[in-house]
Amino acid sequence: MPTVTCRCKEVYHAGDEHIGKEIQCRKCGRKVKIKAEKAKRPKREPRARKPRPERAARATRSAPRAADANGPHAGENQRLDPKTRKRLLIAGAAFAALALILAAQVMSSLRSSPTQMVPVSVPDDAPG
Question: What is the pTM of this model?
Answer without folding.
Answer: 0.30
